[in-house]
C-alpha cells in the first residue's frame, strides 16, 4: 500500500518504498486491508496545500514525513460512499485552512488507487457521470424559456451548471430528487456552512446563498413540473440556502396548492428541525419525507458545530418525533468524521436518539471541513475510538429496522404516508 503524494504542480505519484498512512481525528494510524476499496468511479484526487504526507518504512515501522516540495493527496468521494479514514499528513502552515471538502485517505497498490471507504448506498442515481452536460444545458434553456418570470429556475441554473449540483440538475432533468430552495435566512451558524461564512472565519464558502424570497407561484411551478412520476421527490432545503423552515408560511401554502392539484411523488424537507412549531405546520400541510441534519446527539458537540439560535437539540428531537408520529418517513443527514463519529460516547448517544425518534433512515454524509479547525472546536473524546467501519457495523446491529444509506429514499410501500388532497 504505497504512499500517494503530489508535487507543487499537482502531479500525483506513488512512493516506491514508503507505505501510505491515514488519520483518525488527529492520530496517525495504519490502514487496514478491510478498509480499502478501489477508487470509485466519479471520485477525484486532490492535493492538500500546506501539508506534508506521512509514510511508514515497512522494514522498521518508522512513521516519517516525506521531504521536499510535496503535499498530501486526498480523495473526494462521490455520494453513496462513506469515508473511513482521513489522509495521513501534518500541516506545514498551522494557520492554513483546507477548503470545505471531505478528504479520504488514498494509497496505491497492485496498479490502482485504493481509498479508505465503504459503499453505503446504490450510487447509480448520484453518479456525476450519469448527468449528461449537453442534455442538462438544453433542459436549463428549455425550462427557463417556459418560465421566464420564475427566479428560482434562474437561481438553480447556476447551481446546476456552475456548481454542478446534482439535485439542482435533477430539477431540470425532471428525475429523482430535485431541488426547490426557499430560504435566504438561517437559525443556526454552522461552523462548516457551505453557503455563508463570517468574514473572519478563514473559510471560503464554495456556494453562494440565494438572496431573495420566492413567491408561492414560483415554488408551485417547480414542484408541479417535477412531481410527475411515482418516485419523484422535490426537496426544500439545499446547500445554496439557509434553513427552509424559517419560510414555513411559503412552504405550507405551496404544499397545500400542489397537493390540491396532484398526489403524485413525494415532498421532502432537508432541515435542522429546530423550529418545532414551524415543522409541525409543514408536516400537517402534507409533508411526506423529512431529513434532519445533525452531527451528534450530544448537546455540547451539537452546539459547538451548529451554534443554534433560539433552539436546542431537544427541539430537534421533538420535531422528529412529531413527524414520525404523523407518518412522515424520517431520516437524519448524519455528518460523519473519522475519529469523532466512531467514539463510544457518540455511538451510544446516537443509537438512543434514533430509537427515541423512531428514525427510518440514517444518511451517512462525509463532513466537509478543515480537520484541524473542527477538532479544535468540539469536545475531546471521553471513551475509546472504535473506527468508522466498526461504528457502522454497530449501527446496523443495534438498529436493525433503520436503513443505513447515504441519500433520501422513497419509502417502502407499506410505510408510505397516505396523501390526502385538499
UniProtKB/TrEMBL annotation:
Cofactor (UniProt): [4Fe-4S] cluster
Top-rank taxon: Bacteria
Keyword annotations: 4Fe-4S, Iron, Iron-sulfur, Metal-binding, S-adenosyl-L-methionine
Stretches assigned to the Radical SAM core domain: 181-347
Pfam families named among the record's database cross-references: Radical_SAM
The name this protein goes by in its record: Radical SAM protein
Organism: Paenibacillus haidiansis
